[in-house]
Amino acid sequence: MSKSDQHIKTFPKGGVHPNDEKRSANVPISELPPPKMVSIPLSQHIGAPSVPVVDKRDPVKVGQIIAKSKGLVSSNIHSSVSGTVTKIDYVLDSTGYKRQAVIIRVKDDEWEESIDRSETLVKDIALEKDEILKKVAEAGIVGLGGATFPAHIKLNIPRGKKADYLILNGVECEPYLTADHRLMLEKGAEIIIGAKILMKALGVEKCVIGIEINKPDAIANLSELCKEYPGIAVQPLKVQYPQGGEKQLIKAVLNREVPSGGLPIDVGVVVHNVGTSFAVYEAIQKNKPLIERIVTVTGKEVDKPVNLRVRIGTPVQDLILAAGGLPDNTGKIISGGPMMGKALNSLEVPVAKGTSGILLMPEEEAHRKAQQVCIRCGQCVSVCPMGLEPYLLMNECEKEVFERAEKDHILDCIECGSCAFVCPSNRALLDYIRLGKRVVTTMRRERVS
Amino acid sequence: MSVQTSSTLLTVSPSPHIHKEHSITTMMYAVVYSLVPALLMSVYVFGWSAIYVTFLAIASCMFFEFAISKYFFKQKASVWDGSAIITGVLLAFNLPASIPWWAIVLGSLFAMGVGKMAFGGLGNNPFNPALVGRVFLLISFPVPMTQWPEAMNANRWTMADATTGATPLAVIKEGLDAGVPISELTAQIPGFFQLFTGMQGGCIGEVSGLALVLGFLYLLYRKITTWHIPVAVLGTIALITGVLWLIDPTQYMSPVFHLITGGVLLGALYMATDYVTSPMTPKGMIIFGVGIGVITVLIRLWGSYPEGVSFAILIMNAAVPLIDRYFKPKRFGAVRNGK
Ligand code: SF4
Ligand code: SF4
Per the domain annotation, does B16 fall within a domain? Predict the structure, then answer.
C-alpha cells in the first residue's frame, strides 16, 4: 500500500473531538535515571496480584524476577533497579488504595547479564511459536495502552477460535498523551519486528497498524519501515475519540463488529498496543523483561512537557520534577489521559506498567461544573460509540432499577466518558453507569451460582 | 514551583476530567439569538407592538418561573438559564401583535405554571410550554387570538389601533368552504415571495419564513440542533399537499403555499425541535416529524381551524415517551458473527 492510495478510515458510530493538547509531541524520549527508592506494586495488571519471591534484605539486579504470576490471569514482575529489598509493604497506588508493593533501595545500576542492552536491531526471530508465548509470559508483559491485560493471554487463542489479523494500536486518542507517538517515531523498526513476533505467535499473516492522522510523521515513518515486511501495513485513521478502544479500532480498520459481550478474537482479531509490541521485541530479541516504559508528563501549566523512559516503581514526583516541577496552581494530577485517566491523591504513587502519562491540571480545570437537570438534548446518545442511551442508564441507576439497566445493555459501556464529556448539563453520567455496571455484574454472578 | 511531598489539596474525581466548552445556558442563548432576525422582521411588518408583546411575554415568563420556583417549590430559580426567555419569545411569536397585555400575562402564567413548572420544571415537561400557553389562549379567548393586524399598516409606528385582516390561511380556508374558486382566492393574498419574506398577516414570529430559516441555519451551524425534525415535518407536509394539489389544483393550494404560510416554519424549526419535548434518536425524530406533518395537514384541510401546527406538535409531544421506547439507537455489536 503506498501512502497516496491509503484511504482514511474511522469508526462510524458516535465519538467526540476533545482538544488535542499534544504539547509534548515534538519532545524526544529522554531517560529518567533510576530514583533512590522504588516501590514496585504487585498489582499492575488486570487479574490476581503477583506473589513476591524476594524478601527483606535480598539483593536484586535490574531484570531479576521479584514476583511471580498467580492464577490464570496474572503477570510476572521484575525489578527495575539494582539494590536491596527494604520491605514489602502497602503503598498508595493509582487506584487510590494502599496495595502491596516491593520496596527497593537503589544502589548502582547493575543489570542481569542475560539482558542485551545494546541498541543493535535484531531482525531475525529465532524463537518458535511456543517459545515466544512462554517468553512473553515470563517477561511480565501486559497491555501498555492502559488496560494492562496480560499480553500472553491474548496470544493464546482459545480452542475453536481463529485469528487472521493482528491490529497494532497506535491511535493514542487521549488528548495530551504522546508516549506512543514518540515510540513510533523513535523505535519504529523495533515495533514492527515486535509485530512480526506477535504474528508468528498468533499464526496470522496480516497485521495493520492503526494511527490517527494527527500523527503524520508516525504514519510516514512506519509506512516506510513496513515496506520491508509483507503483510504489515499502516492504516491512517481520522481523529476521533475513542478510536483507541479495541472495538472501535477493529470496526474502523476492518469493518468488523465485535458482538456485544464478545472479544476481538470472536471476529478473528487480536489487538495489541504499539508499546506492547515494543516490549515484546525487547523481551524476545533482547531478553529484557518489562521493567521500564515511556510516560508523557504534561499539562497546560507544565514548564517543559516531556516523554520519559521511566523505571517501573519510580514515584510520580520524580517525573514531575523532570518536567520542570509542579506548577503552583496544580489542582489535579491524573495518571493517564484526561478522558479515562485516574486522579491521584498523592505524589508518591509509583509509576506502574499501565502508566501512560502524568497530566497536571490547573486548579481552574480540576473541578467539575455544577450538575443541572437533563434537558433531553440527546447529545449523550448521539456520541455514545456503543449505541447506548446514557441519560436513560443514569436515570435507571439513580432509581436503582438495575434490571432495566441490564436490559438496556449497561454492560456494553466501555467507560470512554464521551457522554459525560459532551453533556451540556454536566451530568455525572459515567459515575452512575459505572456504579450500575458493578451492581449488574454482581447480580449476574449471583444468578449463575 | 515546588514539589510538595504529599499534597492534600489535590482534587480526586472519576474520569472524564475534561468537558466540552458548552452548557445549557450557552445553547439556550444561541436559540434566543437565532430568533432575533424573525423578531426584527416582525417589527418591520407590524411596528412597535411586536417588540412590546415579545418583551412583555419574556418578562412575564421569567417572572412566573422565578415566583413559582421560589414560592411553590422553595428552590433556587434558574431564571437566567435562558429557557424561560425562549418560552417567552416563542409564546409571543405565536400571538397576534394586537393581543391585549392581560392575555400575554395570562398566557405566560399558563405556559410556565401548567406547561412547565407543574411537571417539575425544565427537563420534565412533556409538552412545549409556549404552545401550552398559546392553545390555552386560543381556546379561552378566541376573539383577540384571531384578530390579525395588517402587515405593513401605515399606523404601525404610532401604536394607534390598526386595521385587522384575515391571515392568508384563513382567506383560503373560508373561501374554499364557501365555494369560491381558488384562482379568485389566490388573487386576494400576497404572492409567494411576499409570503416568504413576511408581508402577511399572522402571528408575530411566523410571518417571515426567510428570517426563521436564517436563524435555523445558524443553529445548525453551531450544532445546537439537527435537521431531522424540520425536514420530516416540512417534507411530509410538502408531500401530502403536493399530491393533493397535483390531483386537483382547483381545490387544493400548492405545497409551497402550505410551507410558507401560518406557523409551519416556526413550528417545524423552533417549536417541534424543543429538546425536552422531542425524541432522542434521529429515527425517533423522523417519526415525530412525520406525525406532526400529517396531523397539521389533516387539521388545515379538514379540521375546523385554519391552522393546525400547534395542535399537531402537542399531540406528537404526548407520543414522545412511546417513540423513545421503540426507536432506540442502533447498538454496537448487536450482531451475530461480526459481519
Ligand atoms: S455510555 Fe459508556 S460507552 Fe457510551 S459514551 Fe458513555 S462512557 Fe462511553
Ligand atoms: S447530554 Fe445530558 S442533558 Fe443531554 S440528554 Fe444526555 S444527559 Fe440529558
Answer: no
Residue A235 pLDDT: 96
Yes or no, beta carbons of B338 and A267 under 8 Å apart:
yes
For residues A184-201, average pLDDT:
96
User: Which pLDDT score, from 0 to 100, does residue A37 have?
Assistant: 95
Three cell numbers, residue A45 = 495488571
Report pLDDT digits (tens) over A342-353. 999 999 999 999
**Residues B125 and B204 occupy one common structural domain:** no
Closest approach of A12 to chain B, Cα-based (Å): 10
Q: Return the best residue to mutate from A416, A426, A435 for the ligand 1 pocket (most ligand atoms within 8 A of CB).
A: A416
Cell readout for A389 is: 442511551
**A16 CA distance to ligand 1 middle (Å):** 11
Residue A383 Cα to ligand 1 middle (Å): 8
Task: Let me know if residue B334 belongs to a domain.
Answer: no
Are B20 and A348 within 8 A, CB to CB? no
Q: Do B250 and B285 fall into the same domain?
A: yes
B80 and B196 part of one domain: no
Cβ-contact A336, A362 below 8 angstroms: no
- A124 CA distance to ligand 2 centroid (A)? 54
Q: How many CA atoms lie within 13 A of B96 on its CB side?
A: 25
Euclidean distance between CA atoms B113 and B108, whole angstroms? 8
b vs e for A231-268, b when ≥16 Cβ sit within 10 Å of the residue's Cβ? ebbbbbbebbbbbbbbbbbbbbbbebbbbbeebbbbbb
d(CA A212, CA A234): 10
Q: How many domains would you assign to chain B?
A: 2
**Looking at chain B from residue 5 to 24, which residues have their Cβ under 8 Å from any Cβ of chain A?**
5-7, 9-20, 22-24
Per residue, the 3-state secondary structure of B22-72, as one string, reads: CCHHHHHHHHHHHCHHHHHHHHHHHCHHHHHHHHHHHHHHHHHHHHHHHHH
Together in a domain, B320 and B181: yes
pLDDT (tens digit per residue) in B207-233? 889 999 999 999 999 999 999 999 999
pLDDT-based confidence at residue B196 (cuts at 50, 70, 90): confident
Question: Looking at residue A33, what DSSP letter applies?
Answer: P
Is the torsion defined by CA of B185, B190, B195, B201 positive or negative?
A: negative
Asked whether the beta carbons of residue A261 and residue B333 sit closer than 8 angstroms, the reply is yes
Give strand pairing partners of A106.
Answer: A83
Residue B69 has pLDDT above 90, yes or no: no
Mutate which of A11, A241, A388, A426 for ligand 1? The one with the most ligand atoms within 8 Å of its CB, which is A388
pLDDT of residue A3: 45
Same domain, B170 and B139: no
ipTM of the complex: 0.89
Do A381 and B280 make contact, defined as CB atoms within 8 angstroms? yes
Q: Which residue has the higher pLDDT, B304 or B42?
A: B42
Q: Is residue B15 part of a domain?
A: no
> Is the CB of A407 within 6 Å of ligand 2?
no
Q: In the predicted model, is pLDDT for residue B5 greater than 50?
A: no
* Interface residue A360 vs chain B (CB under 8 A): no
Do B100 and B171 reside in the same domain of the chain? no
Delimit the domains of chain A by residue range.
3-13+116-286, 379-448
Q: Chain A: nearest CA to B179, how far in angstroms? A: 46
A364 Cβ under 8 Å from any chain B Cβ? no
Domain range for B314 is: 166-326
CB-nearest partner of B123 from A317, A374, A430: A374
B125 with B177, same domain? no
Reported confidence tier of residue B159, pLDDT bands at 50, 70, 90: low
Same domain for B189 and B261, yes or no, is yes
User: Which residue CA neighbors atom 3 of ligand 2 most closely?
Assistant: A374
Angle of the B48-67 helix axis to the B36-46 helix axis, nearest 10: 130
A374 touches chain B (CB under 8 A): yes
Check whether B13 has a pLDDT greater than 50. Answer: yes
Pick the CATH number of A3-13+116-286 from 3.10.450.350, 3.40.50.11540, 3.40.50.2300, 2.30.38.10: 3.40.50.11540
